[in-house]
UniProtKB/TrEMBL annotation:
<keyword id="KW-0028">Amino-acid biosynthesis</keyword>
<dbReference type="InterPro" id="IPR029066">
    <property type="entry name" value="PLP-binding_barrel"/>
</dbReference>
<dbReference type="InterPro" id="IPR022644">
    <property type="entry name" value="De-COase2_N"/>
</dbReference>
<comment type="pathway">
    <text>Amino-acid biosynthesis; L-lysine biosynthesis via DAP pathway; L-lysine from DL-2,6-diaminopimelate: step 1/1.</text>
</comment>
<dbReference type="GO" id="GO:0008836">
    <property type="term" value="F:diaminopimelate decarboxylase activity"/>
</dbReference>
<feature type="domain" description="Orn/DAP/Arg decarboxylase 2 N-terminal">
    <location>
        <begin position="36"/>
        <end position="293"/>
    </location>
</feature>
<feature type="active site" description="Proton donor">
    <location>
        <position position="358"/>
    </location>
</feature>
<comment type="similarity">
    <text>Belongs to the Orn/Lys/Arg decarboxylase class-II family. LysA subfamily.</text>
</comment>
<comment type="function">
    <text>Specifically catalyzes the decarboxylation of meso-diaminopimelate (meso-DAP) to L-lysine.</text>
</comment>
<comment type="subunit">
    <text>Homodimer.</text>
</comment>
<feature type="binding site">
    <location>
        <position position="331"/>
    </location>
    <ligand>
        <name>substrate</name>
    </ligand>
</feature>
<dbReference type="InterPro" id="IPR009006">
    <property type="entry name" value="Ala_racemase/Decarboxylase_C"/>
</dbReference>
<feature type="binding site">
    <location>
        <position position="245"/>
    </location>
    <ligand>
        <name>pyridoxal 5'-phosphate</name>
    </ligand>
</feature>
<keyword id="KW-0457">Lysine biosynthesis</keyword>
<feature type="binding site">
    <location>
        <position position="359"/>
    </location>
    <ligand>
        <name>substrate</name>
    </ligand>
</feature>
<protein>
    <recommendedName>
        <fullName>Diaminopimelate decarboxylase</fullName>
        <ecNumber>4.1.1.20</ecNumber>
    </recommendedName>
</protein>
<dbReference type="GO" id="GO:0030170">
    <property type="term" value="F:pyridoxal phosphate binding"/>
</dbReference>
């Protein structure tokens, strides 16, 4: 059950701040993050590793939500950082994030991105394919430098999640396949290049996982191959990166596992498998994104128009929608929401919450019970901290909303709202 904090006036609280005040001071739509929640998630992952006593890194997957303040927060919490583009790397550089704690993922890193990352001196490339291995070797040569790498292995195991975000199965654009000898060839090739240090292996099963058994299965599968690679190539992994994907609660029906449960399963399986193979216990890395920031974010919207179709649906439109949260339209993702500006009253009716984009599919929630909603009411949609702002667009030339961090009694703008001038910044008038 999701219980949200309210003050004596019955207004929703984010940290110790009244959501109505936030909406008045900034604007709607806006993203408000409760920084205490981000910190506590980061600490839960770290604590779980400390308790099982193993060398580890928790790398925040910044694709879930990246901005300079967020990267600074990740640093304060002692996290490493997973980036997947030159843009995410640039953000990390602007935030003064220590480059040796940056890992670079992605299935089509460009030569330019590889060069930028080598120049920046990042800690590790998670190499996805042979093309990247060649680019990396060439660029190491050009820059007279070396690179630490993990190889991304596709263990051929599906997480039970939406197919768009399931990444570990046999038919995947990511990684070196185990079943057809690609992974072994990649190990051999990496070991043969003197400018490349093969530190270990990486896999990522999928996102929004609610069970640990897929992780155990993936690790067991991987180790059956690692055994052979030791015999054939003398390879001993110093790092196993088990990826991210740890599920969170979007609605009261989601019952996510604690960070501890995932970490314990991963570490336990890796210890058991390396013991069975008489291999030293490697460092264990993970790269959670959603589970660090997802539940910490709330989107505040103002309710505008309504349209009731008797016996069919009662539409309530808000001042944002798919441009700040594409997940319902793209994945059929479900969210919960409440009126933030009202004393909690008995829900009166089921509403369909529509976005403002010119697209019938721009719906945020299809069946939300609420007290009678009026134009001007403030609607808070919960658990929007991951892949909300990060996937926002300017469709319909809607400016992107501001992002505000709240911590206890303080709040601060961390991403400015876009304005109309921002929308035409890159436009050039016709002159031919
Ligand atoms: N590591 C790798 C290699 C990944 O591909 C991903 C996510 C993560 C870590 C972080 O996963 P997380 O802990 O955040 O679940 N836009 C989709 C999610 C795409 C996830 C892509 N990869 C969504 O809104 O659900």
């Amino acid at each position: 059950v999701m219980t949200k904090k309210r003050n004596e006036q019955g207004h929703l609280m984010i940290g110790n701040i009244d959501a109505v005040h936030l909406a008045e001071q900034y604007q709607t739509p806006m993203f408000a993050y409760d920084v205490a929640t981000i910190r506590s998630k980061a600490r839960a992952f770290k604590r779980a590793f400390e308790q099982v006593g193993i060398d580890y890194q928790v790398a925040y997957a910044s694709k879930a939500f990246s901005c300079i303040a967020m990267i600074q927060l990740a640093y304060e919490e002692g996290l490493s950082l997973d980036v997947v583009s030159g843009g995410e790397l640039y953000t990390a550089i602007q935030a003064d994030f220590p480059m040796e704690k940056v890992h670079f993922n992605g299935n089509n890193k460009s030569r330019r991105e590889i060069r930028e990352a080598l120049r920046a001196g990042i800690g590790c490339f998670v190499v996805d394919n042979f093309h990247e291995l060649e680019l990396l070797e060439e660029e190491c040569g050009n820059l007279q430098t070396q690179a630490n790498i993990l190889l991304r292995i596709t263990p051929g195991i599906e997480g039970t999640t939406h197919s768009y975000i399931s990444t570990g199965g046999e038919d995947s654009k990511f990684g070196f396949d185990l079943f057809n000898g690609q992974a072994e060839a990649a190990v051999a090739q990496s070991l043969a290049v003197s400018s490349i240090q093969l530190q270990g292996l990486h896999f990522h099963i999928g996102s929004q996982l609610f069970e640990t058994s897929v992780l155990t299965k993936a690790i067991a599968t991987l180790y059956r191959h690692i055994e052979h690679w030791r015999t054939l190539h003398g390879f001993i992994p110093g790092v196993i990166n088990a990826g991210g994907g740890f599920g969170i609660s979007y609605t009261r029906y989601d019952e996510p596992l604690e960070p501890k449960a995932f970490v314990e399963t991963i570490v336990h399986s890796i210890r058991e498998e390396s013991g069975r193979c008489h291999l030293p216990i490697p460092e264990v890395w993970i790269e959670p994104g959603r589970s660090i920031v997802g539940e910490a974010g709330t989107t505040l919207y103002t309710i505008g128009s309504q349209k009731e179709i008797e016996h069919v649906r009662h539409y309530v439109s808000v001042d944002g929608g798919m441009t700040d949260n594409i997940r319902p339209a793209l994945y059929g993702a479900r969210y919960e929401a409440e009126l933030a500006n009202r004393v909690t009253q008995r829900d009166e009716k089921t509403y369909a919450i529509a976005g403002k984009a010119c697209e019938s599919g721009d719906m945020l929630i299809y069946d939300l019970p609420l007290p009678a909603a009026k134009s001007g009411d403030l609607l808070a949609v919960f658990s929007t901290g991951a892949y909300g702002y990060a996937m926002a667009s300017n469709y319909n030339r809607l400016p992107r909303p501001p992002v505000v961090f709240v911590e206890n009694d303080e709040h601060q703008l961390v991403v400015e709202p876009e304005n109309y001038a921002d929308l035409v910044r890159n436009d050039r008038p016709l002159n031919m």
